[in-house]
């Protein structure tokens, strides 16, 4: 079974990896090593700088450079696969130094295709049989670091055309910057160089949600974080996260968490 943890920083060996469950209580911290977080099952929520946040599960993950302050929590039954690496030890030997630097050049969310999802699940199962085998962990980390790099490499190629592709990390940043506005589907589609109808179809195929549902999810997650981590009034949280009024926020929080904003704040 995955370890249950809050992802608190720890001293680990070069290229250590493990499967673990994230606690449901929100946490915010940074650590001196880089970290890869890959969804295994269930849902987790992460907030990365600058103003990127996402609720994700299998098929998604995030890359956290060292000293990157981030927030996170698990949502019920969940598991993620974690790789810890550091430029201060010999972790770059797991992967070519230039690729290593590109992987952790900035905090970002990533998408995982079906082949990579199956590979992660298989390697996580293998590691469960030998959880303390450090050489096995290092080999698994090296395979996954290379595999992740080859998935994100096209995103970093400035000569590649960006049209016709949905970049969720870019959309997350755009949504976060416009939480107090009513950002339209047309604006999101234009950012991806697509027509609204094409964008709506591809977005639903990618996320399983409509663009409207996705934006609402981002607003609700940010509102929940503010309720639990700030002293802002409920009406101020509603205004900050783009809800028309406190009643609209109450309805959205109740639908998502089955709690009122006040109850969520006291939880």
* CATH top level class name of the largest domain: Mainly Beta
CATH superfamily grouping of the largest domain: Regulatory protein AraC
Helix content: 40-55%
CATH topology of the largest domain: Jelly Rolls
The rounded Rg comes to 19 Å
Which architecture name of the largest domain does CATH use? Sandwich
Strand content: 15-25%
> How many strands, which pairing sense, and closed or not: the largest β-sheet?
8 strands, mixed
Could you say how many structural domains there are in total?
2
Determine the structural class based on helices, strands and strand pairing: alpha+beta
Order of helices and strands: EEEEEEEHEHHHHHHHHH
State the total count of DSSP E strands. 8
How many helices? The count is 10
The averaged pLDDT comes out at: 83
The geometry reads as globular
Write the layout of secondary structure elements.
Elements lengths: L2 E3 L11 E6 L4 E3 L4 E15 L3 E5 L3 E5 L5 E16 L11 H7 L4 E4 L2 H16 L4 H19 L15 H10 L7 H7 L4 H12 L3 H19 L4 H7 L5 H12 L3 H6 L1
Helix pairs in contact: 1-3, 2-3, 5-6, 7-9
Summarize the structure.
By secondary structure, this protein is α+β, with helices and mostly antiparallel strands. It is built from ten helices and eight strands. Helix 5 crosses helix 6 (196-207).
